[in-house]
Amino acid sequence: MTGLSGDICPDHFLVSNLPELWEWADRLGRDTLVIETAGLCHRCSPATEHMTAGCVLDCTASCRAPGQLGPMLTQADFVVLTKIDMVSQAELEIISWQIRQLNPGAALFPMDGLAGYGTDLLARWLLDRPARGSFEGDILRHTMPSGVCSYCVGEQRVGSAFQQGVVGKITFGEAERCSL
Predict the structure, then answer these.
(1) Residue 12 half-sphere exposure, CB side, CA atoms within 13 Å?
(2) pTM for the complete prediction?
């Protein structure tokens, strides 16, 4: 199943469609539903209390990358570290340490996708997870930003006349106005 959010925030799109996805998997008789979000905005985490949530981190991005992932990392049950063959052992240790500082309960799975290293460990870990049963009454692990504005839904024109929804504006004091 493929769902494309288009001009809508991908996080909000996913959360809005979770009940339908769960029902779809149930209709097909599936006991597992894997949702791959293809890199959300990192400000949200559309994971719920009843699901097993993961975060994928590209180790070549930066040693500071874990601190930039927000609730997608801090709310994850597991973290997959990719491209470990392209960083030094020291960099991998720094990244792993930072993740443990931000989310001490997350299971870490370093992986080399080319060699297949680590995939069996993740698969076994996922298979050992307890069955979740129903998602009835499930709630998000973390609040979502309320910022939905005209640009979130596809507006391209710039200016106050085209701004709707939650919009934040800069306020200038008298001193700042004079210096502009």
Answers:
(1) 12
(2) 0.78
* 154 vs 123: which has the higher pLDDT: 123
CB 109 within 8 Å of CB 81: yes
Within the chain, where are the H helices?
10-27, 71-74, 89-102, 119-127, 174-179
Which bin fits 41, alpha (ψ -120 to 50), beta or left (φ > 0)?
Answer: alpha
Measured in whole angstroms, how far is the alpha carbon of residue 53 from the centre of its chain? 9
Average pLDDT taken over every residue of the chain? 84
DSSP code at position 104: T
Mean pLDDT of the region 117-129: 93
Residue 70 contacts residue 43 (beta carbons within 8 Å): yes
Rg (CA), the chain: 20
| 86-to-55, 69, 98 alpha-carbon distances in Å | 19, 20, 18
